[in-house]
Design a protein that fits this description.
Layout (H helix, E strand, L loop, with lengths): L2 E4 L4 H9 L4 E3 L19 E4 L12 H25 L2 E5 L24 H14 L4 E5 L3 E2 L5 H10 L5 E3 L3 E2 L2 E2 H13 L5 E4 L7 E2 H11 L8 E3 L1 H4 L18 H5 L7 H11 L3
Parallel strand pairs: 1-2, 1-3, 3-4, 4-5, 5-10, 6-9, 7-12
Antiparallel strand pairs: 8-11
Bound molecules: NADP nicotinamide-adenine-dinucleotide phosphate (NAP).
Length: 279
């Protein structure tokens, strides 16, 4: 497989670069997805787009909203056009933020999108563009943890400083490890799984952010510190400009499992991840 990875500097981009050492990997400085440079497209079979504007709260500002639509909607639309013209397979990443989180069951791939935030809306627009490509895989992870800025890293930093934070306990989901997401992409592409959308998250019981934080603290040896739970409404009460978040972030991963995608339990993967971090 001749693969091109775009947005290679992010959490998922880095994991993909490790999983596909023979691929061409271009970070944002080398290739801007929203303003694509000419490349030798026939040299590739698969383009994997891991680039995105992921600052959820930043996307609520006028400048951030424009940047989010540029990277998350115009970018995938430009890549979709290139994929169609050159007969390439396009792999793209979406998010549960395209849903409003109001359903009382895990979200399936064909559930109606109803984003609450500018970030979610821009990602939903990108999804529509990618779905217009015949040869596409659209993967939706949640709560991504890899090399880079993420919730687990923030909690490890606080734990190391002996700080016991207040964490929301009414947003429910499952962490997804970037290396598992990269492995899922490689699996779908190399097994020629049916094209389309797949929800790919960590396996195991869903948990709240506060429960994930407690698991991180226990693994870091700071289970003695008490993490206090709070509601999302109370947490953001003094930040009305923050993005609205879906409370139910649980995605139904049955379709991916049926396609043979491994979905390791998030608690097992979290333990391995924390062990591999410099504490
Ligand atoms: N993080 C999560 O919890 C989460 C959850 C669900 C879905 N996702 C989705 O998963 C995908 C990967 O997320 P991630 O966690 O790896 O994000 P990330 O660590 O923020 O990486 C995104 C990368 O995209 C780059 N980028 C931004 N604009 C670009 C452009 N116009 N052209 C090329 N590259 C650009 C960024 O570069 P700069 O750093 O220089 O801006 C960054 O290297 C995204 O599609 C995201 O929406 C993420």
């Amino acid at each position: 497989m001749r693969a091109l990875i775009l947005g290679a500097g992010g959490q998922v981009g880095r994991a993909l670069t490790s999983a596909l050492p023979d691929a061409t990997a271009l970070g944002r400085d080398a290739f801007d997805i929203a303003s694509p440079a000419e490349l030798d497209w026939p040299a590739y079979d698969v383009v994997v787009n891991a680039g995105a504007f992921t600052d959820v709260d930043g996307a609520e500002t006028p400048e951030g909203r424009a940047a989010a639509w540029r990277a998350n909607a115009a970018g995938p639309a430009a890549l979709a056009d290139i994929a169609r013209r050159h007969g390439l397979t396009l792999v793209h990443l979406s998010t549960e933020y395209v849903f409003d989180g109001a359903l009382q069951r895990p979200y399936r791939e064909d559930d109606v999108v109803a984003p609450l935030s500018a970030y979610g809306a821009s990602k939903a627009a990108g999804d529509l563009a990618v779905r217009g490509v015949e040869r596409h895989y659209l993967l939706r992870p949640t709560w991504v943890v890899g090399e880079g800025r993420n919730f687990v890293r923030t909690m490890l930093g606080l734990a190391a400083r002996g700080i016991a934070p207040t964490v929301v306990d009414d947003q429910i989901g499952r962490p997804t490890f970037a290396s598992d997401l990269a492995a899922a992409i490689v699996h779908l592409v190399t097994t020629a799984a049916p094209f389309g959308s797949y929800h790919v998250t960590g396996g195991g019981e869903p948990a709240s952010w506060a429960e994930v934080a407690r698991a991180v603290y226990a693994l870091a040896g700071r289970g003695d510190l008490t993490i206090t739970g709070t509601s999302t409404a109370a947490y953001f009460a003094d930040r009305p400009q923050a993005a609205r978040r879906p409370l139910n972030s649980v995605l139904d991963t049955e379709k991916a499992a049926d396609a043979g995608v491994q979905l390791p339990h998030w608690r097992d993967r979290l333990a391995e991840h924390v062990r591999s971090c410099d504490l």
